[in-house]
Design a protein that fits this description.
Strand content of chain B: 25-35%
Number of helices of chain A: 5
Strand order of the largest sheet of chain A: 2-1-3-4
Strand order of the largest sheet of chain B: 1-4-2-3
Largest sheet of chain A: 4 strands, parallel
CATH class of chain A: Alpha Beta
CATH class of chain B: Alpha Beta
CATH architecture of chain B: 2-Layer Sandwich
CATH topology of chain A: Rossmann fold
Radius of gyration of chain A: 13 Å
Radius of gyration of chain B: 12 Å
Distance between the termini of chain A: 32 Å
CATH architecture of chain A: 3-Layer(aba) Sandwich
Number of strands of chain A: 4
Strand content of chain A: 5-15%
Order of helices and strands of chain A: EHEHEHEHH
Number of helices of chain B: 3
Number of domains of chain A: 1
Order of helices and strands of chain B: EHEEHEH
Oligomer: heterodimer
CATH superfamily of chain B: HPr-like
Chain lengths: ~130, ~90
């Protein structure tokens, strides 16, 4: 099953989004969070992102969802360094954080491929609320 | 002619986030296309956001239509999920 990594400036936001998506998706998907700085402030941590990717990896690929701004930069910096210990199949979603995560987790729970899960997250850009 | 199948369920609860998730997880396991119809509004059953946006509520009729491989099994699985929706679920 594809694993999910949530990268947020806020640990609470990442954990809350993981909790919500886990409930909607039935709880079978591994959702690892990388929220806040190493000392617990608002911000991002490249070490937390790397650790979350390793936790989420079950061999079928990992989709990373950054919330915005420097979360995206932190993920890109990590992937550009291309550390040896990260899984080979990694994608970054250009998607709204909450809706994209929910859509990705549901598709992963149904057994979708990394490409399917990425597409589901990115299609959430078009989902209307009203 | 591709395999196709259709069934209609009257909801016994609202189709909130959790049952919508269960529905889309079930639909996503099948290779066929699966569409829901509520009051003339259509949604891809595999898209949890589209299913939630239907806002289907207790007493409304939901029609499930599948076209493609395993259409009958897909409709049976989704009818089972829809029939299990209760007013206690959220």
């Amino acid at each position: 099953m594809v694993g999910i990594v949530l990268v947020s400036h806020s640990a609470l936001l990442a954990e809350g989004t993981a909790e919500l998506a886990g409930q909607i998706g039935g709880g079978t998907v591994t959702i690892a969070t990388a929220g806040g700085t190493d000392d617990g402030r608002i911000g991002t941590s490249i070490d937390k992102v790397a650790a979350a990717i390793r936790r989420a990896d079950a061999g079928s690929g990992v989709l990373i969802l950054p919330d915005m701004g420097s979360s995206v930069l932190t993920v890109r910096t990590l992937l550009a360094d291309d550390p040896d210990d990260l899984p080979a199949q990694l994608e970054v979603a250009d998607a709204p954080f909450v809706e994209g995560t929910v859509a990705a987790v549901v598709t992963a729970a149904a057994g979708g491929s990394l490409k399917d899960v990425l597409n589901a997250a990115q299609e959430a850009r078009h989902a209307r609320k009203l | 002619m591709p395999e196709s199948c259709e069934a209609t369920v009257t909801l016994t609860g609202d189709l909130h986030a959790r049952p919508a998730g269960a529905l889309s997880v079930a639909a996503g396991r099948y290779p066929c296309a699966v569409q829901l119809s509520v009051n003339g509004t259509l949604a891809d059953a595999k898209s949890v956001l589209a299913v939630m946006q239907l806002g289907a509520s207790n007493g409304q009729q939901v029609t499930v239509r599948a076209v493609g491989p395993d259409a009958q099994d897909a409709v049976a699985a989704l009818v089972a999920v829809l029939s299990a929706v209760t007013s206690a679920a959220d």
